[in-house]
Amino acid sequence: MKISSSSILAFLLALGLLPACGTNIGGAAPPLSPPGSTGAAPGAGTTTAAATTTTTAKAAETDAPTAASAASAAATAATAATTASAPSAAANVYMTSEITPKGLQAVYEALDLAPGAGDKVGVKVSTGEPPASNYLRQELIGDFVKGLNGTYIESNTAYGGRRANTAMHYQVAADHGFEPVLLMDDDGEIEIPIDGGLRLKKDIVGTRIGDFNFHIVLSHFKGHQMAGYGGALKQLSIGYASSAGKSWIHTSGKSTRGISGGGQNGFIESMADASKAVVDYVKGLDGGQIIYINVMNRLSIDCDCNGNPSEPDIHDIGILASLDPVALDRACLDLIYAADGNASFVWRVEAQNGAHVIEAAEQLGVGRGAYELINIDVI
């Protein structure tokens, strides 16, 4: 079943993902906060469910979004319906509610893009910080990666922990079942130029990124303490960056050490810049291709770099896949805004102006915010 963004409310109702009352879908979301908090409205830029309009001016350089009045859910839904873009302008996003190896294989096959006989497949994952992070388990993804003769790829962290050192990181990856695995920066790093970036003129990634020409960005979708949320765009940027590259993004091009000093919107827009760098680099390889899969389970407000994350308040939703990382992340956030128990997750996203990475990446041409959600469970 193919769902245009103008009919997404009906689709979500049919899946049982909407509460009985009206719920806002898309960027102009009500500022939800934990009890006792006043909250904050989303940052610069307004995106409907179809993401047909995006403010291109940079958000004011502050560490938190500016407060604004919340629009009613009914008004937002009406806006989404009347401003939906033409189907030709929308990217396909495939979804299954079956979070199983079978469901993962099905959304991948729906993309109709497979590696050729001579292609080398790298599957970008988060190996997960010990002891109890919500990284994707082998029970879900192991057979899928083996079936593609894929290699898990990762990079070292920039914030300490057991994955900041190459030898320790390889041990954590093995402990978590990621085999075969390659840390792209285990033999140094390279700089990738960024043409027309909002903040950065270069990205810094591991030298081994070019060992693979068919990349699968396989992300656990979740909240994030600094980025607001983590999905395909965060994997492309922070995930692919070397340790120094992660600092470069966090500091908005000011330093290759540390993770502070870039300002919140500087950090967010630097992630969009780095996403563009990786996409351009991989697609410039001989036969270079990238596909994107987001798994919406264990929907904690904390990232997989947190070894003791908060328990989720939202039930598992499904697995989504697309050839467009911007559309994919937009669709996942729309599902979060439609979900019961979303207050803490929405607060996390809005407190960090997290959705701005989608706006910025679309502005840079990384992808399109407009999408058609195709439920493969009922095809």
Structure in a nutshell:
Helix content is 30%, strand content 16%. The chain is an alpha/beta fold and 379 residues long.
Structural overview:
It is globular, with a radius of gyration of 19 Å. With about 375 residues, the protein is an alpha/beta fold. The strands form three sheets. A nine-stranded mixed sheet has the order 1-13-2-12-11-8-3-4-5, sandwiched between helices. The chain has a two-stranded antiparallel sheet with strand order 6-7. It has helices spanning about 10-15, 75-80, 100-110, 140-145, 165-175, 230-240, 245-250, 265-285, 325-340, 345-350, 355-365, and strands at about 1-5, 90-95, 120-125, 150-155, 180-185, 190-195, 200-205, 215-220, 220-225, 230, 290-295, 320, 370-375. It has one domain: Rossmann fold (3-Layer(aba) Sandwich), CATH 3.40.50.
